[in-house]
């Protein structure tokens, strides 16, 4: 990586930073696996190289630096590999929605929980957001468990982007 790359935050095992074009092959490896999309809106569309490239270019161009709205690469510190993506998407004013997608070989190591807890802590400390939503397909038990583990409250099932999702929420602590 040649230019300065913004690091959003670091945890014990991971760091989340802005994308660089050098992430292309690693992110493609993660996002081209259909299992990653089993419970997401892309379920019939594992990413191809072009989509991955456009996604990275889009977020490099956005150049987010604050945590109220951001998208970044998850790097496993021990291996220095990109293992997935995370971020806060705009949802309601000052109440974004959290997102994670990790490569299959990195599931069930506590990584999403580690990141989610840090996002909740840092985003409330460093921005004006008043709450964070989490949405998961009702059958996505791993995602729902993580939302619960990071301290979110279950609100019930509601319509979200043309499908029924389980809604979770945490307000400013
Ligand atoms: C959802 C996802 C981000 C979770 O990441 P992760 O790093 O594996 O999560 P963690 O290891 O922190 O925690 C997973 C928890 O779910 C539990 N879990 C996993 N699969 C489960 C299942 N089928 N049923 C019930 N619980 C399950 C684990 O046991 C663990 O809970 P525990 O600590 O109480 O044992 C990851 O599975 C993923 O990337 N999935 C594909 C993309 C996706 O669905 N993203 C979410 C919607 S955008």
UniProtKB/TrEMBL annotation:
InterPro entries assigned to the protein according to its UniProt record, in alphabetical order: Acyl_CoA_acyltransferase, GNAT_dom, N-acetyltransferase
Single GO MF annotation: acyltransferase activity, transferring groups other than amino-acyl groups
Domain N-acetyltransferase: 14-173
Highest taxon listed in the record's lineage: Bacteria
The name this protein goes by in its record: GCN5-related N-acetyltransferase
Organism annotation: Ruminiclostridium papyrosolvens DSM 2782
